[in-house]
Amino acid sequence: xxxxLIAASTLVGLISSDSLASQEIEKVEVIGTRAPLYSTRDINxxxxxxxxxxxxxxxxQSFSEALIANQRAKTLGEILANDASVQNTSIxxxxxxxxxxxxxxxxxxGLRRDGLALAPYxxxxxxxxxxxxxxxxPSSLVSGFNNPGGTINYVTKRPTQAxxxxxxxxxxxxxxxxxxxxxxxxxxxxxxxGYRFNAAFEKNGDFTGGDDLKRTFVSAAFDWQLSxxxxxxxxxxxxxKKMVSQPLIGLxxxxxxxxxxxxxxxxxxxxxxxxxxALYETQTLNSALRADFWFNxxxxxVNQVAYSSNDRFTIFPDIYSVNQAxxxxxxxxxxxxxxxYQTVSAHTFVKGEFQTQGIEHELVIGLSxxxxxxxxxxxxxxxxxxxxxFNPTYTEKPNYPDYPDANVTDTSESSFFITNTLHFNDVFYxxxxxxxxxxxxxxxxxxSARVTLDDRxxxxxxxxxxxxxxxxxxxxxxYSEGAGEGAVAVIGSGAINEGESLGPQESEQIExxxxxxxxxINYTAALFQVEKMLEYHNRNTNYFVQDGVQSHQGLELNLxxxxxxxxxxxTSVTFMNPTLDELGGDNTINGNRPANVPKFQANTFVDYxxxxxxxLSINAGIFHVGEREQNVSxxxxxxxxxxxxxxxxxxxxxxxxxxxxxxxxVFDKQYWLSGGAKGIxxxxxxxxxxxxxxxxxxxx
Length: 700
Fold this sequence. Notes:
This is Iron complex outermembrane recepter protein. The protein is mainly beta. Helix content is 3%, strand content 54%. It has a 22-stranded antiparallel barrel. Strands 1-7-8-5-6 form a 5-stranded mixed β-sheet. A hairpin with a 2-residue loop joins strand 26 and strand 27. The longest helix is centred in the first third of the chain and has 7 residues, at 20-26. The radius of gyration is 25 Å and the shape is globular. Mean pLDDT is 89; it is low at 1-32 and 37-44.
């Protein structure tokens, strides 16, 4: 038997694509996803080896392409609204930005594509994505430098066993049009080669509306079984995207009390508060090559390399303050021109099994490297003529001033990792892992010599203990440490060190959890505590700093799967107790809560197939986010909100077509989505109003 077919439940990386977390969520779709050309649909977590998610001593949530299709999701933030441990912390609208367990993603390391790093500041298209995995907690053992809240990994679609051709067309209110082609199959009669292509075009409006954009996307993937021992896969995707740039809306002042209050609400998906010429433009390219070699049935050698780039021209309109009539009192437009970001990452590791003195070992040992270069660090400021948020003023594009050459920053990360899972008997085992990271960062400013910003090494261990009394029940306890990029002092904040990198920092987590599978339903519970230093704008010194301890204690409860033959759900609840302590630079905020972190968050998405008319299914989503502090000083609170979505799906068997209708924010709820991210505390981001979409997918 070909070794590409071994392990239908294999995750060559973080979790198995056939793990219960993924399977149960995929059951939201009445018709299952197509069988891949080979059963190794995987992501790559290197140091954790190949295991079912049920066996790993960490918390993982997965969201399938079926859920993405049913919810008509186009961006990361839309699909991760299904996870109550994920918070939306977007700055304006140009790309999604989220927090995991209350900790904001590291822009340069937090997003992965099939296990390897992506270039930052891009909205990853979902048209060629099979699944999105959310790995909770510090994951430096898994991925190297990373965010303390966790990692988000995009799993790309692979070639399929049978040829197919899908065409999806979609219309939405606000003059939105969308076309998506997805096709693939084997390239040879014996099915040892396969292909998968995706292409998409989307256009919203004419850049005078609040969420207007234009994008083109193409991707290709190839799998090739060269022999029983060697399996190679190659894939690449490209996106050209232009969209209007929307600001956070600055805060107001109560004229009677002088206190800072929230601004008046405006739906920025309808109203453009930037300028029609002030676009966020990106061109992104992601490519990867992977080769798996089997020495025998017990030992495998995995090699993977990836290239990711993002070239962008960015314009950020800022509104710093408004009055209750919507008049803009302070504003600017910041332009950061011709920025380039490139990442080359790779890893190679060997994994296998052996026994010593009655103890079974699963060993993973390997090397990884990442070279990241950014050309940025320059900006200029223009006058923002918007005037009033309810009746904005638009002007012609001004002439740009001359601007200097960019700073060139080179970051190098190399590491060695080893993990050993020791099985003492059929129900008890422990996971021991360590990654040693060498981290170097240098920078060259225009007409200046190259300087060293960082030259450090980190050891990031992990210890996990599992007790699995049956195949369906698992108890685990784990401790992990992490290391990751620090924040960048926000440009436009007025801080003395704006634009400066704050340097790497370390984090740690302890987690205990239960995973249980029963009658088609997957239940998980995790109790955790994560700690790192706080990064914030110290108003006393007017510097962005790292100081004190930001600690998040929480409980996550998740349920996903098929309740019966007609009813499926994805449900998630998170309770958190986030605190700030031990700050020396501004001890007045000791005991406060960090910004944008609710104490309670919950959501449920339910899909119901009509038993007497099984071509028709209806779905509903309820998404609740509790109160959040707008800033670390806790002087302003964002109110809790609940959003309701409704949808239906109808199978037209005669035409081999699927029709979907979806209404997001059915009751047109006005709410504040976030208070910004990475220390931005001058404004808030409004949630979008009612959105109606209708789509049809034809399958050939």
